Amino acid sequence: MRGHKLLRHTDADGSVGEDRRAVSDHTFLINGGAVLWSLKKQEIALLSTTESEYVAAVHGAKEVLWLM
Fold it and tell me: What is the pLDDT of residues 37-59, one digit of tens each?
């Protein structure tokens, strides 16, 4: 990806609701254009919003490796 600028935004809404599963979203931009976007419920129940942010970051990092 030489010469291209890759930007990534990853976030999680926290562990809300009865099932305690957060929703993660990822957005990837290359040179200002969106190339990948994802929004899905996390597969595991978590005890804190910090944990849900870590899970979202790990899944976002795996997507970056796939893009490269």
Answer: 888 888 888 778 888 888 888 88
